[in-house]
Known about the structure:
The chain has 473 residues and is an alpha+beta fold. The chain has ten helices and eleven strands. The strands form two sheets. Strands 1, 2, 3, 4, 5, 6, 7, 8 and 11 form a nine-stranded mixed sheet that branches.
Amino acid sequence: MGDRGHGRGREPATRPKEPRGRGRTAAKSNDDPGRAKTQVAGRAPGQNSPKKEPVQRGDPGERTAVRANTTGRKGKDQPDHRQGRQDQPNPRQARQDQPDPRQARQDQPVHRRNSLKPVYERLKLKMKDISNAADKVNGIVKVIIDKLSDREPLFKGMERMSTGSYYEGMKISRPNEFDIMLKIPISDHQRIGLTEFGGSGAFYTLSCKRSVVDYGMNKYVDDHGNISAIKILTQLRKLVNEAVSGRPVSIKRRNPSSPALTLIIENKPTNIDVDLVIALEIRQSWPANTKDGMNIDSWLGRKVKRDFKFFPFYMVPKKCNDGNTTNDTWRISFSHIEKEILTNHGSSKTCCEADGEKCCRKQCLKLLKHLLELLKNNGKQRRKLDKFCSYYAKTALLHHCAQYPKDEDWKLEDLDVCFNRYVQFFQLCLKKACLPNFFIPSHNLFNLESVDCNLLYDQIDDQIKHNYPLFHL
Length: 473
C-alpha cells in the first residue's frame, strides 16, 4: 500500500512484520464476522445529566469553534457555501475551524438525550444472520480461488483479503454485502514500475521492469508495455463464471466504472452481493504523493504510522477518466490499513477493549452511513445522490479523528454531541466540494462532474434542523 518507511530505496531483508496495535492484543477475528464485538451505545449528554462535563485541555483558544449557520444558506457572518469551491479543507487546520464538541449550536434544535441510541441499536446485525451469510460467502469464494489458482499461472498463490465495512465491523442493517480483495502477490524481484496518471496521485499505469514470462504476466502486457487491467479482468470473469456454474450464484453485468466483479448469491430473505476485486500486492516504497497523508501522528502515534509505511500497498483495476477518454489504469488502495486503523482506533491502548473505556467513533460512522442511505432512497433526488458512497463517510471520519485524536473527544455517553460535530465536519467538506483522500491529500474524492455537493449539503442541513426525522420513520 528501499527502506520503504524512509524512501531510501532499500528492500528489507525479511518480510516486515505488521504492527500489533500499539501493544494491545491483536484482534483475532476481524475476518470472521461471527466474532465481531458488539458495542452498546451509551447516554448522550444533555440537560440534567448526572455526568460532569469533561474539562477541555490545552490552550482554550484551540477549542474555540466558529459556529456553523444551518438556518440559512447565507448569513451575515457566513458566506454562501456555493462560493469558494476551490478552497480545500486542510486535514491539519486549526480546531477553530471545527464546531465545539461541547457547545450546542444555538440555531438548531437541542437533541433529546440519548436520541440516537435507539437508532444505533436498530442497525446492529443479528449473530445468526452473520453466521449464515458468512458460511455461504466463504464456501463460494474458496471454490473460486481454487479454480483460478489451478487454471491461470498469474493467479497462482492468490489469497483472499477481507476488507470493507462487513469485516471492519461497520456493516449496518443486514449482512448482505461483502467486499473481498483477491490478492495477487508480486515477488520482490519482479519490480513494478509506476507512472502517475491524471495528476491526482491516485491513478497509475503499471509496467514490469524485469522479465515476467515465468509469472504468467506476459500475456497481460499491452502494446505500450503496460499491464492491462482490462485483460486481467476479462480472464477473471471467464474463470469465475466457470467456477460458479451449476451453483446458486450469478454474476452481475459488468459496470465499466467499477473495479469489482459482483456475485449475487441466492439467499433468504435477501440475496447476498459479493464484490470481488483483483489487487496486485506491491512491496516497494509508497508513491511520493502519500508523503503528507495519513495524518495520525497525534492520534495513533508516529511509531504506528512508521510501521504502516512498511506495509505493502495494492493496485486495483480502475479506469481513470481524464475528461476526454477512459483509460486502462490502476488505482492505489490502502483498504487494509483503513481496516487496521478502525480496528485499533483509540489513542489509548485499551479503547473499546473489555476492560477499557468505550468510545463512539464507530457508532458515529454507522449513523452517518445510515443517514446517507436513507437520503439516497428518499424523495425525488435519489438519482442525484446515488454517487455518494459510504466510503466518503469513512474518509471523513478518519480526518475528523485526526483533528480530535483523544479518546475523551469520543466518549460513548457523548454519542449525540459527537455525531453532530462529525456531521458538521462532513458538511464543511461538502461546502468546499472537497474531501481529500486520507492517504493522498492531492486526490479529491468529490468529483464535481459526478456528485452534487450542494444538494447533499441542503438535504443534511434539513435533517439537522428537524432533528433527523428520517431516523425516526
